[in-house]
Design brief:
This protein is of the alpha+beta class and 145 residues long. The chain has one helix at residues 2-26, and strands spanning 36-39, 41-46, 50-52, 57-68, 71-81, 84-93, 101-105, 109-113, 119-126, 132-140. Strands 1, 3, 5, 6, 9 and 10 form a six-stranded mixed beta sheet that branches. The longest helix has 25 residues, at 2-26.
Length: 145
């Protein structure tokens, strides 16, 4: 009699475990969708040809971020290296079910940079394919403009 109870108990436990495995493999748990960040393709930039050492450099960026309203501008990643200002423009895709079909543009997002020494500078905007959009400016001493 003792072996029959053990057999039935084992059978019940195995059946319950089997149902649990099958049930959990069929249930899709909501995986939290995460934002995706990407380099934005910049069509053009607008900046002054000449500024003084006391001025702030304002660079406006234009281009297409995405094709629905789940896309948005995220941030700039600027780095200066002697006579070059390297800029990456980052966009963000926030996944969702309510993404209306609309073109999202940079629309002149502005980067402001201060503290320049006198000289000629290049602005390099990194593109998604690795190419660069290049422009330049001259920084003159205050009062020489």
């Amino acid at each position: 009699m003792k072996s029959k109870i053990s057999f039935y108990t084992g059978l019940i436990i195995t059946t319950i475990l089997g149902y649990m495995i099958i049930f959990t493999s069929c249930v899709k748990f909501d995986e939290e969708e995460q934002d995706t960040y990407f380099l934005v393709e910049v069509d053009s930039i607008d900046l002054a040809d000449t500024i003084t050492t006391a001025d702030t450099l304002f660079i406006s960026f234009y281009g297409t971020i995405g094709n629905n309203n789940c896309y948005s501008f995220s941030h700039f990643y600027p780095q200066t290296n002697e006579d070059t200002i390297n800029v990456e423009v980052w966009g963000k895709l926030s996944p969702g079910e309510n993404c209306d079909s609309v073109i999202v543009y940079l629309e002149g997002e502005q980067l402001n940079i201060i503290n320049f020494d006198e000289g000629a500078y290049f602005v390099h905007v990194k593109q998604p394919g690795g190419s660069l959009l290049i422009d330049s400016l001259t920084v003159v001493p205050t009062g020489d403009r």
